[in-house]
Amino acid sequence: MGSVRFEHVYKKFDNNAVVVCDVDFTIEDREFVVLVGPSGCGKSTTLRMIAGLEEISEGKIYIDGSVVNDVPPKDRDIAMVFQNYALYPHMTVFENLAFGLKMRKYAKSDISQRVKQAADILGINEMLERKPKALSGGQRQRVALGRAIVRRPKVFLFDEPLSNLDANLRVQMRTEISRLHKQLETTMIYVTHDQIEAMSMGDRIVVMKDGVVQQIDSPLKIYNKPINRFVAGFIGSPTMNFFNGRLTSENPLLFEMPGGGLSLRLQEEDSKRLAERSGAGVILGIRPEHITAKPQSGSGKSIAVKVEVTEPVGNEIFVYFKIEGSQDQYVSRIPSDIQPPTGKSFNMYFDTSKLHFFDPSGGGAI
Predict the structure, then answer these.
(1) Beta bridge partners of 206
(2) Which of 55, 76, 110, 209 is deepest in the core (most CB within 10 A)?
(3) Which residues contact 113 (CB under 8 A, 6 or more apart)?
């Protein structure tokens, strides 16, 4: 069993700066959980506390049901893969893979068996006699993974392991790590600031900001039902559009921006849910894919916008635009066979069945 439980965990540094605040959740055995958030949010510190590389200021961390606060890193039965591959340059791939096992006094036959098994899993058999300088970035990362696999730990920890790779290799290694998770059936905890990695890899995502856990859920639930404006804006690329405005006391309710550039009639369900906020200010959120060049359903509302920039990205185009009465820039994503004229007016369709609403004061989802 490789479950990991946080019980009201805090991390404070010498100046009493709190970098991790009251983290309290459980990672189940064999689960793949991704910690995601902007730089400085405390995700790597949280991972390092699991590994024993950072001391816990308050609270408890359990691995497999046992408190590990005072357990040395070498005795926690975890394996960690870092952003830096940290391979020994003077050793061959085989020796790098075997080093940790030799230090733990494993028999030579057991070491050879484990190294061969890891090499088979990662497809690096032909590289075992090479040294790191003769390997590409992707191959070095495979060796770093292999060094963790030979340990057969209860928990794998990944601290932004793909940051040094180019875009194509990142995609390839994401798939590789996901495949390894299914094959090894081991608990994996993965830290990244890349929300695409988080969405594509995790069984669950833990979104952090300023040391505080904002939301824990499956990727699709976080994407479709963000708990607050921060999560809504951080998860998704391009980011969600936000419009400040007011709900008018009509039936159904009407959302209007100051200046009249955007006016959307709410769906019946949203109107009933937000009835108590009639006349109050709200923040409306809508994802770029729900602002389209053609109506996608009966719930689309046509709005005239001014196209600022178009950004082709292959099979689709990101269209950056402004709305009358606002200086903010917004974005939609449309098929690449449509070419909106830059600098001119263009009609966009807002899918009113896909609207999100947030409290202007606290940012919480309504």
Answers:
(1) 35, 216
(2) 76
(3) none
